Known about the structure:
Layout lengths: L3 E5 H13 L3 E8 L2 E6 L10 E6 L2 E6 L18 H4 L3 E9 L5 E5 L16 E6 L1 H14 L7 H8 L1 E6 L10 H4 L11 E6 L4 E6 L2 H8 L4 E2 L2 H16 L10 H6 L5 H9 L5 H5 L6 E7 L5 E8 L9 E2 L2 E2 L4 H20 L9 H4 L7 H13 L1
Parallel strand pairs: 2-8, 8-9, 9-10
Antiparallel strand pairs: 1-11, 1-12, 2-3, 4-5, 6-7, 6-14, 10-11, 13-14, 15-16
The structure holds iron/sulfur cluster (2 copies).
The site of one iron/sulfur cluster has 13 residues, from helix 10.
Amino acid sequence: MAQTSVIDDAALQGVIDALAAQGYAVIAPVVRDDAIGLEPISGIGDLPRGWSDVQAPGRYRLEQGHCDPGARFGTTVGPQSWKRFLHPPRQVLWTARRQADGGFAVSSGASDTTEGHAETAPRRQAFLGVRACELHAIAIQDRVFRSGPFADPGYAARRAATFVIAVECGQAAETCFCAAMQTGPAASSGFDLALTEFPERGEFLATAGSERGAALLASVPRRPATDEDIAAARATVARAAAMQTRTIDTTRIRERLQAQPQHPLWESVGERCLTCGNCTMVCPTCFCTAVSDASDLSGETAWRVREWDSCFTLSFSHLHGGSVRRTNAARYRQWMTHKLANWVDQFGTSGCVGCGRCITWCPVGIDITEVAGAFTVAEDA
Ligand code: SF4
Ligand code: SF4
């Protein structure tokens, strides 16, 4: 099954066409509103050719001139993650409609009178351009939603209808730290097909990761990969790893965070944190939701909606008598300690894959690597 070939731009278009012919909506990075968004595409011409993203704490810009002008995957990760297609931001769980006899008829999912993503009949979707860190994020959400006590049949159905094409990074943003989290930049598993781009020659090293990936690869023009092609792909990924300047020392980070819930660092971060929740919205692994009920003005139709929630809101931890995390410091501590420590207890891995989104999209530039590093220093002092 592990079949490695070289394909060119025309063959990549052939991959997209073949997936479309099989009924897949092909979703890929596109330039949208001066950022990289993830949207359905019809061809390679929709990809962000020649664009790079310049990222820093609280800063994101798309610019030309930083990568090969032919690069179609010269950016890293944008504000959206694939999470939105597997675990949608808003889902109608059920709809109730008043009947002539005064009772209500309840049906699952959305109706034509409600908004939202229906639970039934997920569309076939192909993700093109999934980075290595995001493969790990999808694997983390799989563990949460496909097994265990909180398995979500809607997620499982969408996941089963998803074809994954990974693209290994040839560059890193200033905010990336996947190498430290051992989630990238090489794509090792969790894909149907993995590509490494050679933009200077309009080609890709293509590796099948599943039977259906091998079948798709076999359906387009290709040539066998040479040792030079494979070495060039490894050099591409090594360059992306070497560009990363941020890191988290994961040695004993779980114990360090769990042992210091009263440390003054939480207060100093809490003084900066706006509790806006951006970090949780952009994070590809955060999965918390809230459920609410609503009805139309006539009272004829009601529905129950599940929407992304954030542990940074006061209402998130509202119990009898009020919120149990009243301060910004308490809410930041909850988020970061869950990500890097308690997640390991719950799910067996870190909840952070090092994508750097929470650093870039934090309006005040709070940097999870810097805060984690401060705890390391605090313990060592
Ligand atoms: S915590 Fe930050 S760096 Fe880690 S996966 Fe979430 S958004 Fe990415
Ligand atoms: S850490 Fe930054 S992004 Fe997260 S809630 Fe605080 S201010 Fe918002």
